[in-house]
C-alpha cells in the first residue's frame, strides 16, 4: 500500500504556492527527467507530497550551483542503491525465514 505522500493529487499551481518555484521551473525539472508528475485525461499535471520534497531538494542543489545533469545522476545512483539494498534485505529474509518475494 502506498503512502499518502506518494499520491499524485496536487496541481502545479499549488506546488508553485508551496515551493515558491515558478510553474515554468517545475516544468523544466520535469523536462530534464528529475520529476515525474502524473497526467489526468485532460493533461493536467498532478504531483505528490514526495514530489514537492524532491523539488525542494532540487531547488536547494541548484542554488548551490549543482547542474541538473549532476542532480539526475545523483538521483539515479540513489535509486540503484535502494534497489540493491532491497535485494539484499529480500535475500536475507529468504535465507532466514524461507520467504518468497514480498
Question: How would you characterize the overall build of this protein?
Answer:
With 102 residues, the chain is mostly helical. The protein has one domain (4-97): Multidrug-efflux Transporter Regulator, Chain: A, Domain 2, CATH 1.10.1660. The chain is 61% helix and 7% strand. It has four helices and three strands. Strands 1-3-2 form a three-stranded antiparallel beta sheet. It is globular, with a radius of gyration of 17 Å. One of its GO terms (molecular function) is DNA binding. This is HTH-type transcriptional regulator TnrA. Residues 9-77 form the HTH merR-type domain.
Strand order of the largest sheet: 1-3-2
Number of strands: 3
Helix tally? 4
Helix-strand pattern: EHHEEHH
Structural class: mainly alpha
* Content of β-strand: 5-15%
Organism: Halobacillus andaensis
Protein name: HTH-type transcriptional regulator TnrA
GO molecular function: DNA binding; DNA-binding transcription factor activity
Keywords: DNA-binding, Repressor, Transcription, Transcription regulation
Topology, please?
Blueprint lengths: L9 E2 H8 L3 H9 L6 E2 L5 E3 L1 H15 L4 H30 L5
Antiparallel strand pairs: 1-3, 2-3
Protein name: HTH-type transcriptional regulator TnrA
Pfam family, one: MerR_1
Keywords: DNA-binding, Repressor, Transcription, Transcription regulation
Amino acid at each position: 500500500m502506498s503512502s499518502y505522500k506518494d499520491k499524485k493529487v496536487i496541481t502545479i499551481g499549488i506546488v508553485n504556492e508551496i515551493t515558491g518555484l515558478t510553474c515554468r521551473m517545475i516544468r523544466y525539472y520535469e523536462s530534464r527527467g528529475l520529476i515525474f508528475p502524473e497526467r489526468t485525461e485532460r493533461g493536467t499535471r498532478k504531483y505528490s507530497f514526495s514530489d514537492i520534497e524532491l523539488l525542494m531538494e532540487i531547488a536547494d542543489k541548484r542554488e548551490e550551483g549543482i547542474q541538473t545533469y549532476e542532480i539526475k545522476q545523483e538521483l539515479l545512483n540513489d535509486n540503484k542503491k535502494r534497489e540493491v539494498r532491497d535485494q539484499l534485505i529480500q535475500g536475507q529474509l529468504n535465507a532466514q525465514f524461507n520467504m518468497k518475494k514480498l
